[in-house]
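User: Fold this, then the next.

Assistant: Folding the first:
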Amino acid sequence: MSVLPSSSLRYGSRDRFMIELSFEEDPVPHRATIEERVSWGALKIWANGFNLSTHYEAGELREAIYWNWWTLLRWLEANWNPLFHEQALPVRNAAEWAAEAMWKINRPETFDLPHGWDAAAEAGVDAWFRRHCLWSCREGGLLPNVAIRRLLGDVEVSWTNHVPPGAPDHFRFQLTSGGVRLKVAEVAEPLHQFLTHAAEYLAGMANTQDTINLVKRTAALNAAQQTMPRLGWLAGFGKRIQDYVQNFRDTLQENVGELTPEVAKWFFPEEQTGLFVGGDCQGALMFGAVAPALDDNDRLTLAAAMVHHQTPASKARKFTNLIARLDPPDDQEYPWDQGYELARAWIELCGLSTHSVLDMNRHLKSLGVDVKETTLSDKNTSGVALVLEDRAPLVLLNRTCAKHTDFAGHEYASGKRFTLAHELCHLLVDRFAGADLALVSGPWAPKAIEQRANAFAAALLMPNAHIDRAYSDLGSDPRSGGYEKLVQVAKSLDVSPDALSHHLYNKNYIGSEEREVLRTQWMRTRDMPTVPPA
């Protein structure tokens, strides 16, 4: 093949994110449109130092994938806003990385339920797949299974080593599944440069209306008019954002009075030029991104709580000083190891006892962290961690959470205590420099972040020394104590038996089989009807 002049594109950094494309002559031009013919070339995609395009064909290692890339270019432009602003996975968080999660979710057993086929869930999964996964635009090309999505203040690029449907038996990718989280600019800027110059090259080679339009639309991705649609994706509202914003503004003002400019900017940021909206889930518009199950009334409730929260930051001076002395978690460690290490460091930093039950309400109060209760419709949402500029940190507990009450409405103090410890972890390490934090804890929150917070809460509330002493007082040990002893120890630690059994498993006190037996016994006991206390 003879390489056409000025046809080699390379943007980004291989150790972070890079995309390379060398345009070449189409070997079978009669089978393609003119736009497809001039877009034939060799593609390489790099993430975290790995070439995701590297593959074996009949035993031979190859570094680039050849195909017509017209569809890929159009897909990047058309889905730019959701790619860099939408984060919540459809149906559930099935894995830490989006590519692996979608591989697990996007299959018939997800939708074939006992009451019938879940067409709505199927449509939601398909729509998310088309917005975020490279396979959705391959049209026969043997692209790697790569997913791109926003994750709080970063962007996640993830992949699996599955081959696309229709690939020959002798084709396979070299890499195993994985992912990387990068600053949004590290992915958006090189991709936009790539898209800009690729579109200009194609327009020069084939001056059609389609190539000219691609050049114009790519340039428009920098326009200020993109701010509102991007907020829509970041908030979880997608294209209904315009109607929602006006509705939300009117309703919020009815509930809390006239919004000051300082408060209004939390919810309605000014238009800005650029390729993406920065920050994480600050402001009420951002709550949808981490908790799609929250309805509009829930968002209003949380927004009103933010507006009414007037405790000055000076009250939390002790908390701020302690955070300054806390080392950030090691990103190379597993999330649960990060959580355990953070708890160990926090116990030492605060001088907390490892032999007595920690009163979480009193502990947070001593730090200057406010704790309040709220009522949300989603029973799976346990709490909300809020950090606003010039305000003390605030933790909101959801009264309706299944972890806090049983079916008869009885309170589980242990569940609320665990949630408070969990939210403390968010306040310690999940706030981003220079940005407010509003993180909703529930099944839709980012999986790794929730794993870390759960591990932190478990280690903070159940130190090894306290566990060993509690079992010793019963003349037993975790490995042979059985379910009855588990319940007694859980009561002495003021945690649920389920939380204790999970913690014992993570700390290698018990194996997976013992953990499953204990968990099954706990679930059976919990589901039994209870008599309300007199």
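Now the next one, as you asked:
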Amino acid sequence: MTEGVAVAQPQELGLVRTFLHDTGHSMRSVIVNKNLRRMQLAFAGSLVGNWAYATAVAVWAYGVGGAKAVGIFTAVRLALMAVTSPLAATLADRYSRKLVMMAADIYCAVLVTAAAICLYLGSPPWPVFVLATLTSLGGSPFRAAQAALTPALANTPEELTASNGTASTLESLAIFVGPAIAATMLSFASVPTVFLFNALSFLWSVLMVSGIQVARAERNDQPISPDDAGDTGDTAEEAEDPVKESFLTETSAGFRTIWRDKDLLISVVQGSAQTVVAGASAVFPLVMAVEILEVGPKGVGWLDSMSGIAAVVGGIWAISRASKHKLAQDMTLGVVLWSIPLLLVTIWPSPWAAFAAMAVLGFANPLVDVNLFTIVQRLTPDEVLGRVFGALEACLIATMAIGAAITPLLLHWFGLRTTLAILGLGISAVALTGLPRMRRLDHRLVPPEGLSLLNAVPMFGPLNAVVLESLARSLVRVDVPAGQVIIRVGDESDRFYVIESGEVEVTAADGRVLRHEGPGDHFGEIGLLHDVPRTATITALQETVLLALSREEFLDAVTGQGEARRLAEDVISRRLRA
């Protein structure tokens, strides 16, 4: 036995060291990245202020109309958020995402300040309720723009996952810090003072977001000039299609994108299943506190605290998993962990089981949130990413509302233990049914071969990690024997090539040898960007392996990003002068 323990200890220490190393590496990548660091500071500031504000609103609303007023206000706010989220998220795809975030912060700061002024002046309650409801709607465009912009700021898929994990951990901490600040301030100050604190938190967010550098990361929002239109291969009629798109068609693009991609769809379904329990958790912890802990409604605070602490641990664990390439399976695990605790309480309705259940729910929450957001960011085309997040938020809010609505009915009809069993078994069924597809999705999300080669091409440097990964998946392998001509002067320009192995010779139309190129070098961009036939002949000097991008894929990537286009033109200028 002693020997077994002696052997196990180094293994356990090794696992701990690996966990700490992976977590530290992932978090450092977020901190070192100036843009991601500013994004997280903005998010943290506004979150803390929002939770303080929510606490103050609840205290004020309870004083005005009791629990009924709080319930009605919450229901109306959630319903409006579910309806308006897809509409508001359209802004994140139509305008600069950085500016959308700043505008949303300023909008919220103005409304919160106006609500504080109303309270200071002793106005009737209804203007404050209206302003508080409208303030909550400002979060939708901010969150959609934030989620859509983050992939453009991350340098690698692992960094993107780490950033989402950091955001989830900050959100868990804000759930504690915000209400604590509100409670402290309300002990010596008034509700309007907390409102003004929230307004300052929005201004802090504006300050942080304003320093994010998106010139190299965010897509080019300027219209394509007539000179550039020919380079993309689009006709004038095709270029006008987005203008002709109806508002309803534009705003529903997020739902349609999710429906067409079955991997996206199953991810959203699993995430929505989890939020049914999240909505129910607004009700059943209160019943557990009364019936199992037998300490009355105040026991909810203890249960919520256990859940919140575990959520921080879950967020850190999710960050440590960033490099494991198990996003989909980790998300399914998170959904399953939202069901198992409910069954535990069903079988063993004791205080220890209640606390254990809430701890597991808290730990599982970041596993679902972090991985769901990262999956959506990596599967969704950039041009509709904001609207997809708007559609996702609408689904999550709607299913959360369903969970909150049906749970009191189930409790009334069947009691606590049967209600938890129904919820637990239902969510487990959804998670396990989708597991085979989620495993296949992880294979789809493994960084493709050729990604490192594209990363090394200077003109692709400004492209974000998700766009580069998509390009790498489109690469076509071309094996060329020694002595074969790959392209000739005057040929149609139809592909861009990167050399994986081997060597090629580049000759001008008059037969002059211009240069030799080897692994990591590229060719074919001149004819594609200038829409002219090939300007040189390229011949394989030895057995060569090429990775090719089609004309459309190359032009969409390079001409859609101003800095990438500039770098490509620099390469062309140097080569034409040679």
